[in-house]
Fold each of these.
Amino acid sequence: MAGKLTAAQGTGILLVTANVGSLFEDPENLQKTWLREFYQTVQSHKPHFLAVHCQEVGGKNYEESMSHVDSFVKELLSSDAMKEYSRARVYLDENYKSQEHFTALGSFYFIHESLKNIHQFDFKAKKFKKVVGKETCSETLESTPSLEKEKFPQDYFPECKWSRKGFIRTRWALADCAFDLVNIHLFHDASNLVAWEKSPSVYSGTRQKALGYVLDRITDQRYEKVPYFVFGDFNFRLDSKQVIESLCSTATMQTVRAADTNEVDKLIFRESDNDRKVVLQLEKKLFNYVNQDVFRENNGTSLLEFDKELSMFKDRLHELEISFPPSYPYSEDSNQGKQYMNTRCPAWCDRILMSSSARDLVLKPVFLSFRITAGAGKPNANKHKCCVVQ
């Protein structure tokens, strides 16, 4: 949507998701590049309401990166590119000393000065309150009434080892419509070799269980049900066993075992002829495929048949056609921004999903832009019940 939207056109909304962990490890290069691209996206779409869901805020060494997080937030709130956004809410989970609560999630919401009437839900008081000014909340988000934050129960974590995974939910009302925005971070694949063992992988099952937990929580009986958008780092992966069998269909496999444990250490796939050229080398944290172009050509659509994790939720979650290449794992070298790292099989980890009542949208790469029509589909004029977007 180019140009500034008017009231007649509807309220412009832009949803963005980004795993920003690496930005805080290289603030001088990666962070500045990311912010420049982000500002250009905002200027291009000129949304009235902007939601940015971040995961891994602070990176791997959160305590050391706190100053970088602070400067990142200050830059977003005070930059010239965002000066027309007169109201903001920033929620940062900074309680890194509490393993049972820390998720490293960050949710940013910006409201344009032209949007006169927007309310946010108070989950404690169970009512909407008008949004005024700019506020930043951190530390113990569990007690913040304007959101719900949960880390997954410990028995959901692989081997019951804590990691920074969970969700943050906020609820908003504008243009006579109410909707939930859920920032989510699901479990990753710890080992390429384990992911290869069976189809679907054990990691896929763990993510399925966690996502089901989130959907049950945001649609339970505690609050009125409204349309919802769940966007973040789902860590969805291609079916590893099936995609490798497809990529290496004419290759022979060599298994290399560790001398001390006899456990599989690596798998090497070689062409049957052509001097037995190595097609793929697979290790716990290595996925070295001979031709990365297959993941970029035509946005990698030839591999979408192996993107199956969302199919388990086809009755509860919807997604528009994917028209961008796999979002992970891009190189963290700012000079090789279009290259994938040789650590994991490229996959569409970062997604924007929605309930049935919120699916008629316009999708853009790793962000979502759409217009919401005032009062459309509203069954009760006195309630923020339902929204239909067009």
Note: The chain has a mean pLDDT of 88.
Amino acid sequence: MAAVETDSKAPFSLDSYHVSEELGFILPEPLKDLPPYYKPWMDIALRVPELVQSHELRSHINQMPMLSSKFLQKHRELRLAHLALSAMTMGYVWQEGENDTVETLPCNLAVPFWEVSQRLGLPPIFTHADGVLANWRKRDPEGPFDMENLELLVSLPGGDSVRGFFMVTLLVELAAVPALRSIPTVVNGVGCGDTEAVARALENISQSMEDMTDALKLMQVHVEPAVFYGIMRIYLSGWKDNPSMPKGLVYEGVQTEAMEYSGGSAAQSSLLHCFDELLGVKHEEKSGAFLTRMRNYMPPAHKQLIQDISLQPSLRSFVQQQADERLSQAFQLCVTRLLTLRSYHINVVSRFITVPAARARQLRDQSRDLEEEMISRAPTALEERGTGGSGIMTFLKTVRDQTKDAFLPETS
């Protein structure tokens, strides 16, 4: 939050930002199917993993009819269409791996994908908003929101690890909901000088951050590192900052010049952006530029929320001015928990990218078992890089270390 006075006297609220009271940034009750006219899309989208494995996805998409997007009326219809078209796009581009990519996305896929993207304000590529926020259903509608009762609507190659990866990330989003609900209390409490309300809300936020870290630990249970690194990762990768596709991708029928878009990334989740703006965490230069660019991959209302939090009077300055022990401790604990979350994320990335990348280099010239074979055949162009295109470890450690600067001065 910046030290800027706002003109509005109305209390800050989440009502206009497409944030659900129960689910936060998660899309409530995503549709499972589109109107019958779009059956040719869904028939292929639901079979992406098997059609990639049989090397038939490109030919199926090339024969797909050109459908108009104009019959998609509701927001949930557009979100499911974007999910389906984006999964088809990732499969089409990466079906043959990094050495036989395509330069052009055919117009029967590219044009409707572009139109749907324009209407949603999302880029024409698979994003966190697709794979995580709008890609879930409960097996038992009355049952709990947990790993056993959740399944994907649309999948990518990688089997159970794909479901594990997206569902665990969904549970991290769910764990953040109490923190999101507490943000207006913090903003309004700062505005009217209510120290106790702000302290209480910050305590809720820090608890929520701890729950997010605990949810993230499920990644180790539900995702195989060899499968993530050797199979899944390329299908989450984009055509920006990717040596396998240095020219980007031409969206046929949209424009003749190639376009570049980053692949899916945890940085496309709005959660940590909100926390950074609330707590006054500043990211400089390269890391800050990447994080800012990732906001263009979020639903516009969520991006606007981050921007509007940044325009509120500074929470950190308020805490320093009040000199209230409970308030100061609550603020410090939020920064500590945010640091812990980012540090644990670094551990996850090490387990799923850095360690397998080192093994891949070591194994390429040796005889291998199945798991080692998977790792050794992984894309070499993306070694040590995140699916969003960042030099992953340097980036994450820089972002974590910049978080420490938000601590109040008296704490080292």
Note: Residues 3-7 have pLDDT under 50 and may be disordered.
Amino acid sequence: MTQTELTLCLNLLLFLHVVAQFRNNVQQQQWPVPYRRFDHRPATDSYCDALYPFCPTGDRDGRIPYMRDTDVISIYRLQTPVWEFKYGDLLGKFRIMHDAIGFSSSETGANYTMEWYELFQLGNCTFPHLRPEEYAPFWCNQGAACFFEGIDDFHWSQNGTLEKIGEITGSQFNDMAQWVQDDNETGIYYETWTVRSDPSPNSTVWFESYDCSQFVHRTYRKLTELGAKLSSRSQTNYTKIYLYSGEPTCLGNESAIFGQPALKNLALDIREFYHTFRPHQSFIDFALSMLEAYKKVVLDKSFYLYYNFEYWHLPMKPPYVQITYEEVPLP
């Protein structure tokens, strides 16, 4: 073999190696993208302000009462329209529901409610603030579990669901309580959207939501692992808010996009996109923003998603956005 032939062979092997590495990197992208967990929950920023205080009657540190091992704890499925306390059944007519779990001690007669929701309301978890003094969008998107004494029977049953679905022992309840606290410390941010390739049953899920109903599903699965037998007399449906897109592209984290002059146009495009969804707009501004949102999402087929503290571009496709109320059977 001549030196020229040897050089060609080496170059070919190097090229094949690069191609193989590229294919491996492509294949390593997992769908749906796994939700990122953390070692601990960070303190919230004072800029983030809740219209309604988070968990006003619950323990500030998220502690859950200890139950006697011999106690029998009833488990209740709770569901009501979002913001039912303010708007009644209005959002229920659109099947936009909030989910929680209730518990009742047979020994003490005490009732408890457990739910997982946004620290600073849904809008702040779905879209960021654009602060004049900061170039990058500012997110107030933490969510957490809230455990408090009492079950407001009227709140849950008037326009929703209050149904006993099982029983566990006090010992099993205490094991679940420890799991909830661990889950709450590591899963810290709320995600509104579920992103799929299309509405068909076998479509690819790009991103899963992380919201109140997902917390309920995780808790039901944990209770089942601990030995609970759960059953419902009615169909167990839950609200899902879908975006539909082609394969997403990861654009990078905040520093990679907003700290690089070379990506100035991308950074400005992301800011412009989120400006459409800014809070506290007048009625006229809101109407104009909805027209702009239609242009961006439907006509331009573009959406920027913030997930795992990274920005992703979604090439949108029909039907673009959909709210469903679909069955998720008890485990």
Note: The chain has nine helices and eleven strands.
